[in-house]
Amino acid sequence: MKKITMFLMAAAAVVSMASCGGNAQKSECCGDCEQLPVGLQLYSVRGDMEQDFKGTLQKVKAMGYDGVEFAGLFGNTPEQVNAWCKEIGLNPISAHVPLADMLADVDKVIADYKAVGCQYIAVPYVTEERRPGGELFMQMIDEIRAIGEKCKAAGLVLLYHNHDFEFKKVENGQFGLDFLYSSVPADLLQTELDQCWVKYSGQDPVAYLQKYSGRAPVVHLKDFHVEGKQEGDPYALIGLNEGEEKKQSAFEFRPLGHGVQDIPAIIAASKAAGSKWLIVEQDQPSMGKTPMECVAMSMEYLKSLKSECCGDEACSGEPCADCKEAK
Question: What Å distances lie between residue 228 and 93, 144, 157, 181, 269, CA to CA?
Answer without folding.
Answer: 37, 37, 40, 33, 29
